[in-house]
Amino acid sequence: MDLARALRPLRFLLSGGAATLVHWSSMAGLMAAGLAPAAATAGGALAGAVANFPLQQTWTFGGRFRAGAVPGYAAACGFGWMMNGALFLLLHQTLALAVAPAQVLTTALVALSNYTLYKRWVFHDGSRSSG
Out of the domains of life, which is the source (predicted)? Predict the structure, then answer.
């Protein structure tokens, strides 16, 4: 395995971390403006997804911008957006977790799903390795 591939999970975490900051800060702003937490996380997730694409495509997965990756990314983001909403509702409303821990757990689970989708489907890394 080459060094770039070995460092991919770290680059994914750093890129995703930047996008997560966009998500969470947007969510906080929307909640401060009066939106319910579930609606605020939906808006924040969308903002984070927009910020995340160029980072993941060009830095994490080491490619130049390819317009062909956009439809797959949009589909993966749609899945992640629905997963974010469903998990957040389950944790926050059904299980009565506070907003912050519910979102942290949700983000961690969605990130695991996203890495797999991005690696295998969106950015077409067909390798069988875990990196």
Answer: Bacteria
Task: Say what the pTM is.
Answer: 0.82
> In this structure, what token pair is assigned to residue 57?
């495509």
Domain membership flag for residue 54: yes
Residue identified by tokens 């969106």 is 122
Q: Radius of gyration over alpha carbons of the chain, in Å?
A: 15
The two tokens of residue 38 are 């579930």
Q: Are 106 and 84 contacting, i.e. CB atoms less than 8 angstroms apart?
A: yes
CA atoms of 48 and 30, how far apart (whole Å)? 14
Query: Which three-class secondary structure state does DSSP give residue 78?
Result: helix
* pLDDT tens per residue, range 72-102: 889 999 999 999 999 999 999 999 999 999 9
Handedness of CA 98, 49, 129, 86 (dihedral sign): positive
Q: Quick check: helix, strand or coil at residue 65? A: coil
